[in-house]
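1st attempt posting a full record on here, be nice pls
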Amino acid sequence: MPGFIGQLCLPLGRQSQGSEKMMHNFIKRLRASTGITILAFLSFWIASCGTIGGTTSVKPTQPPHVPTATPVPAGTLLYESNWSSGLDHWSASPGWKLLGKNLQTEPMDNLSLTIPYQPKVPNYVVEARLQIVHVASNGGNVLIRADKQPGKDGYRAGILNLLSTSVRPNGSHPQVQADIDPFGSMDRDSFEVMDYEPGTQWHTFRIEVSGDRVSLLIDDKSISDAISTKTDTLSEGPIHLTGSRVILRLSSIRITTL
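the predicted structure (as C-alpha coordinates):
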Protein backbone atom coordinates (compact mmCIF):
# COMPACT_ATOMS: atom_id res chain seq x y z
CA MET A 1 0.00 0.00 0.00
CA PRO A 2 2.68 2.65 0.79
CA GLY A 3 4.33 2.02 -2.55
CA PHE A 4 1.00 2.32 -4.33
CA ILE A 5 0.05 5.55 -2.51
CA GLY A 6 3.52 6.91 -3.26
CA GLN A 7 2.91 6.41 -7.00
CA LEU A 8 -0.46 8.17 -6.74
CA CYS A 9 1.15 11.13 -4.92
CA LEU A 10 3.37 11.91 -7.87
CA PRO A 11 2.50 15.21 -9.60
CA LEU A 12 -0.07 14.68 -12.33
CA GLY A 13 2.48 15.47 -15.01
CA ARG A 14 4.72 12.63 -13.78
CA GLN A 15 2.03 9.95 -13.30
CA SER A 16 2.09 7.21 -15.91
CA GLN A 17 -0.96 5.81 -17.64
CA GLY A 18 -0.40 2.64 -15.60
CA SER A 19 -0.66 4.62 -12.38
CA GLU A 20 -3.96 6.19 -13.48
CA LYS A 21 -5.37 2.79 -14.43
CA MET A 22 -4.12 1.31 -11.14
CA MET A 23 -5.96 3.99 -9.15
CA HIS A 24 -9.16 3.53 -11.18
CA ASN A 25 -9.18 -0.26 -10.60
CA PHE A 26 -8.36 0.22 -6.91
CA ILE A 27 -11.32 2.56 -6.37
CA LYS A 28 -13.67 0.09 -8.13
CA ARG A 29 -12.52 -2.73 -5.85
CA LEU A 30 -12.95 -0.55 -2.75
CA ARG A 31 -16.49 0.39 -3.71
CA ALA A 32 -17.43 -3.16 -4.50
CA SER A 33 -15.98 -4.77 -1.38
CA THR A 34 -16.18 -2.19 1.42
CA GLY A 35 -18.47 0.58 0.28
CA ILE A 36 -15.78 3.19 0.86
CA THR A 37 -16.78 6.27 -1.08
CA ILE A 38 -14.52 8.08 -3.45
CA LEU A 39 -14.64 11.10 -1.15
CA ALA A 40 -13.33 9.09 1.78
CA PHE A 41 -10.58 7.63 -0.35
CA LEU A 42 -9.54 11.05 -1.62
CA SER A 43 -9.31 12.31 1.96
CA PHE A 44 -7.06 9.33 2.78
CA TRP A 45 -5.01 9.95 -0.34
CA ILE A 46 -4.43 13.66 0.42
CA ALA A 47 -3.44 12.93 4.03
CA SER A 48 -1.04 10.21 2.85
CA CYS A 49 0.55 12.44 0.25
CA GLY A 50 1.26 15.05 2.89
CA THR A 51 3.29 12.65 5.02
CA ILE A 52 5.06 10.33 2.56
CA GLY A 53 8.77 10.96 2.69
CA GLY A 54 8.46 12.62 6.12
CA THR A 55 8.20 16.19 4.70
CA THR A 56 5.54 18.59 3.57
CA SER A 57 5.57 21.31 0.96
CA VAL A 58 4.51 24.10 3.36
CA LYS A 59 6.61 27.23 2.74
CA PRO A 60 8.15 28.59 5.95
CA THR A 61 6.72 31.89 7.15
CA GLN A 62 9.16 34.78 6.90
CA PRO A 63 9.19 37.26 9.82
CA PRO A 64 7.97 40.75 8.88
CA HIS A 65 10.67 43.28 8.07
CA VAL A 66 10.89 45.96 10.76
CA PRO A 67 12.85 49.04 9.65
CA THR A 68 15.35 50.40 12.15
CA ALA A 69 15.64 54.11 12.87
CA THR A 70 18.83 55.75 11.72
CA PRO A 71 20.43 57.64 14.64
CA VAL A 72 20.89 61.36 14.11
CA PRO A 73 24.49 62.50 14.77
CA ALA A 74 25.02 64.73 17.80
CA GLY A 75 25.16 68.41 16.95
CA THR A 76 22.75 68.16 14.01
CA LEU A 77 20.84 71.42 13.63
CA LEU A 78 17.10 70.81 13.99
CA TYR A 79 15.82 74.38 14.17
CA GLU A 80 17.16 77.96 14.06
CA SER A 81 15.20 81.15 14.63
CA ASN A 82 14.59 83.59 11.80
CA TRP A 83 12.81 86.88 12.49
CA SER A 84 13.28 88.41 9.05
CA SER A 85 9.49 88.21 8.62
CA GLY A 86 8.72 89.28 12.17
CA LEU A 87 6.85 87.06 14.64
CA ASP A 88 4.26 85.68 12.20
CA HIS A 89 4.99 82.03 13.05
CA TRP A 90 5.64 82.57 16.76
CA SER A 91 3.23 82.59 19.66
CA ALA A 92 4.28 85.72 21.55
CA SER A 93 2.69 87.52 24.46
CA PRO A 94 2.33 91.33 24.39
CA GLY A 95 5.61 93.11 25.06
CA TRP A 96 7.80 91.60 22.30
CA LYS A 97 9.03 93.66 19.35
CA LEU A 98 11.56 93.36 16.54
CA LEU A 99 14.61 95.63 17.03
CA GLY A 100 16.94 95.31 14.05
CA LYS A 101 17.88 91.63 13.81
CA ASN A 102 16.98 90.97 17.45
CA LEU A 103 13.87 90.68 19.55
CA GLN A 104 13.42 92.89 22.58
CA THR A 105 10.86 93.02 25.38
CA GLU A 106 9.15 95.67 27.44
CA PRO A 107 9.76 95.28 31.21
CA MET A 108 6.43 93.53 31.80
CA ASP A 109 5.28 90.55 33.84
CA ASN A 110 4.48 87.19 32.25
CA LEU A 111 6.38 87.64 29.01
CA SER A 112 6.29 84.49 26.89
CA LEU A 113 7.65 83.42 23.49
CA THR A 114 6.87 79.90 22.20
CA ILE A 115 9.31 78.27 19.78
CA PRO A 116 7.41 77.12 16.65
CA TYR A 117 9.19 73.76 16.63
CA GLN A 118 9.25 70.65 18.82
CA PRO A 119 12.16 68.18 18.54
CA LYS A 120 11.33 64.57 17.65
CA VAL A 121 14.31 63.11 19.50
CA PRO A 122 14.61 62.43 23.26
CA ASN A 123 18.09 63.99 23.59
CA TYR A 124 18.41 67.56 22.39
CA VAL A 125 19.86 71.01 23.14
CA VAL A 126 18.17 74.41 23.28
CA GLU A 127 20.53 77.39 22.96
CA ALA A 128 19.46 81.00 23.41
CA ARG A 129 21.78 83.96 22.84
CA LEU A 130 20.44 86.75 25.06
CA GLN A 131 21.20 89.96 26.93
CA ILE A 132 19.49 91.27 30.08
CA VAL A 133 19.55 94.97 29.23
CA HIS A 134 17.72 96.21 32.32
CA VAL A 135 15.99 94.85 35.43
CA ALA A 136 12.95 96.99 36.18
CA SER A 137 12.30 95.72 39.71
CA ASN A 138 13.49 93.05 42.10
CA GLY A 139 12.29 89.51 41.46
CA GLY A 140 12.72 89.48 37.71
CA ASN A 141 13.47 86.23 35.86
CA VAL A 142 14.40 84.73 32.50
CA LEU A 143 13.63 81.04 31.91
CA ILE A 144 13.52 78.42 29.17
CA ARG A 145 10.89 75.79 29.92
CA ALA A 146 9.13 72.80 28.36
CA ASP A 147 5.55 71.90 29.20
CA LYS A 148 4.81 68.68 31.05
CA GLN A 149 3.29 66.06 28.72
CA PRO A 150 1.47 62.75 29.43
CA GLY A 151 4.15 60.33 30.64
CA LYS A 152 6.90 62.96 30.40
CA ASP A 153 7.86 65.50 33.05
CA GLY A 154 8.61 69.05 31.97
CA TYR A 155 11.54 71.21 33.00
CA ARG A 156 12.68 74.80 33.38
CA ALA A 157 16.15 76.36 33.43
CA GLY A 158 17.38 79.93 33.79
CA ILE A 159 17.87 82.81 36.18
CA LEU A 160 15.59 83.84 39.06
CA ASN A 161 15.37 86.70 41.56
CA LEU A 162 17.03 89.30 39.35
CA LEU A 163 17.74 92.51 41.28
CA SER A 164 17.22 96.03 40.00
CA THR A 165 20.18 97.66 41.79
CA SER A 166 23.78 96.81 42.45
CA VAL A 167 23.11 96.89 46.20
CA ARG A 168 22.90 93.37 47.63
CA PRO A 169 21.23 93.51 51.03
CA ASN A 170 22.12 90.57 53.28
CA GLY A 171 24.36 89.19 50.54
CA SER A 172 21.43 88.35 48.23
CA HIS A 173 22.11 87.55 44.57
CA PRO A 174 20.19 86.28 41.56
CA GLN A 175 20.23 82.48 41.25
CA VAL A 176 20.55 80.19 38.28
CA GLN A 177 19.12 76.68 38.33
CA ALA A 178 17.51 73.84 36.39
CA ASP A 179 14.55 71.96 37.85
CA ILE A 180 11.82 69.46 36.96
CA ASP A 181 8.13 70.25 36.41
CA PRO A 182 6.38 69.23 38.60
CA PHE A 183 8.84 70.02 41.36
CA GLY A 184 7.73 66.97 43.35
CA SER A 185 9.03 64.64 40.59
CA MET A 186 12.60 65.86 40.98
CA ASP A 187 15.45 63.96 42.63
CA ARG A 188 16.33 66.43 45.37
CA ASP A 189 19.95 65.24 45.50
CA SER A 190 20.40 66.35 41.88
CA PHE A 191 19.04 69.87 42.46
CA GLU A 192 21.64 72.67 42.39
CA VAL A 193 21.29 76.44 42.80
CA MET A 194 24.11 78.93 42.21
CA ASP A 195 24.44 82.68 42.73
CA TYR A 196 24.89 84.42 39.41
CA GLU A 197 25.26 88.05 38.30
CA PRO A 198 24.47 88.28 34.57
CA GLY A 199 25.37 91.94 34.11
CA THR A 200 24.34 93.50 30.80
CA GLN A 201 26.65 91.57 28.47
CA TRP A 202 25.55 88.89 26.00
CA HIS A 203 25.33 85.28 27.25
CA THR A 204 24.57 81.89 25.70
CA PHE A 205 22.12 79.88 27.77
CA ARG A 206 22.38 76.19 26.83
CA ILE A 207 19.83 73.64 28.07
CA GLU A 208 20.75 70.00 27.50
CA VAL A 209 18.00 67.39 27.74
CA SER A 210 19.16 63.76 27.96
CA GLY A 211 16.73 61.06 29.05
CA ASP A 212 15.47 62.00 32.51
CA ARG A 213 18.07 64.76 33.06
CA VAL A 214 18.12 68.46 32.23
CA SER A 215 21.34 70.49 32.51
CA LEU A 216 21.94 74.24 32.34
CA LEU A 217 25.17 75.70 30.98
CA ILE A 218 25.92 79.40 30.60
CA ASP A 219 28.73 80.44 28.26
CA ASP A 220 29.89 76.77 28.16
CA LYS A 221 30.15 76.59 31.96
CA SER A 222 28.13 73.85 33.68
CA ILE A 223 25.79 75.45 36.20
CA SER A 224 22.96 73.16 37.35
CA ASP A 225 21.39 69.72 36.79
CA ALA A 226 18.05 68.15 37.69
CA ILE A 227 16.76 64.57 37.31
CA SER A 228 13.21 63.25 37.20
CA THR A 229 12.33 60.29 39.41
CA LYS A 230 9.02 59.71 37.63
CA THR A 231 9.69 59.53 33.88
CA ASP A 232 12.50 58.04 31.79
CA THR A 233 12.47 60.91 29.29
CA LEU A 234 11.60 64.57 29.57
CA SER A 235 9.19 66.58 27.45
CA GLU A 236 10.06 67.74 23.94
CA GLY A 237 7.81 70.75 24.34
CA PRO A 238 6.17 73.04 23.49
CA ILE A 239 9.27 75.00 24.55
CA HIS A 240 8.93 78.59 25.77
CA LEU A 241 11.23 81.45 26.67
CA THR A 242 9.63 83.45 29.48
CA GLY A 243 10.56 86.52 31.46
CA SER A 244 9.29 89.12 33.93
CA ARG A 245 10.32 92.65 34.93
CA VAL A 246 13.25 92.79 32.52
CA ILE A 247 14.19 94.35 29.22
CA LEU A 248 15.47 91.27 27.46
CA ARG A 249 17.22 91.23 24.09
CA LEU A 250 17.30 87.97 22.13
CA SER A 251 19.48 87.39 19.06
CA SER A 252 18.90 83.69 18.29
CA ILE A 253 17.44 80.36 19.39
CA ARG A 254 18.83 77.07 18.10
CA ILE A 255 17.79 73.45 18.71
CA THR A 256 20.27 70.66 17.95
CA THR A 257 20.64 66.97 18.74
CA LEU A 258 22.65 65.96 21.78
